[in-house]
Amino acid sequence: MVLTVNSPLDLSTFTGVTLLRMVATALVDLSRHDRAPDPIYSDKVQKAYNHLVLQCLLREMEPPASVADMAQWAATRPIGQWPFDLPAEAENLDEFLVDAQTGVPTQRCYEWEVSAPDAAAELFENEIIRTVFAQCEAARSPQSYTAFRYLLVDKPVLTGIDKATLIGEHPELGTVLETVNRCYEPAPAAYRGTDGRFATCARCHCLLKPDGRSWRCELDRCRREAHATPKEFIDDRSTGGLYLLRAPLRMFITGPGLAEVELEQKLIGKGLVPEMWPGCDAYDLRITLPNRQVWAVDVKDRANPALLGHSTTRFRPEPPYNRAFLVVPQYRFDDREDYKIVFEHFCPPEVKEQVTLLSDKAFLRMLTTTLTRLRKNGTAGGDDA
What we know:
- Pfam families: pPIWI_RE_REase (PF18154), pPIWI_RE_Y (PF18156).
- Residues 19-159 form the pPIWI-RE three-gene island domain.
- The structure is a single chain.
- By secondary structure, this protein is of the alpha+beta class.
- Helix content is 45%, strand content 12%.
- It contains 17 helices and twelve strands.
- The strands form four sheets. Strands 8-9-10-11-12 form a five-stranded mixed sheet.
- The radius of gyration is 22 Å and the shape is globular.
């Protein structure tokens, strides 16, 4: 079905969306803390539960009996069965906020939490990026920023030995070492297998969570493409401990970063030399074509096109470029054929004038066609890209 959107959705004031944000934020908060048998919940958790109960009673629905019951709802009831009153374009109503098999929040849950005003995940991620940017700018070391981003993509898991030898192997990280340490936390016991070891994902290298006799990855793409297979097993007792990149960074740096690096390799295969995260992450890739035209690319791996459109801003003007593209992995378009329609509906007009949304496959097709034309014509200059 192709969606036709008739009226805009105010993502900042719509009551159903506000409640969804509150619940998502509460669920992420619950996932970060071990609770005693008689817990005292944070204000954000209690407030979300109270409002959820109220909305259930107003609709003559049986409310969750407790905060724990609300968390159980998140794993067993799709979003469409909650009293959110969401328009269809706001979310895939068949999705869940918690993965039933691992008990951890889904990426959709994190996206709604990140979009919430003052959400801890967004504040933490933004603070980390701003801090690293400032440190690298003060040191006049853009290579340190690039090394930092590669680290978060390539190494979402570090052993104690890895941490101790990090600077020796990557001296450019010395500028941001203190911030790097803040990005990682001791690996939670919930990721430990029955034999006492941890397992890393063969695709994303994050820790897998035990699921009975098998393993499950928390990143959407790994689960969808059945890549939740162990790459290696780690006994943290013999490695000086084990550290995992914090959840907001795994979801919104490592996840999209994998797509960024995959795109980088494909561009290199086409004879191009892409710049990664130029200008300390003004955008993700900078591509110079044979006619000296420059394309700027930002890669996002977001489940919700409405939230992506709502949060997308114009690209920074430096380093300069001729065209700007927002590239999303093809599987997101496969999951929602209305992805582009919904994105453009919620995207600010001034952004739509500048930025073109494409799947990674469509972007590579366009690039291939452009390169073929330029090389056939022997183009060395001009502005026909």
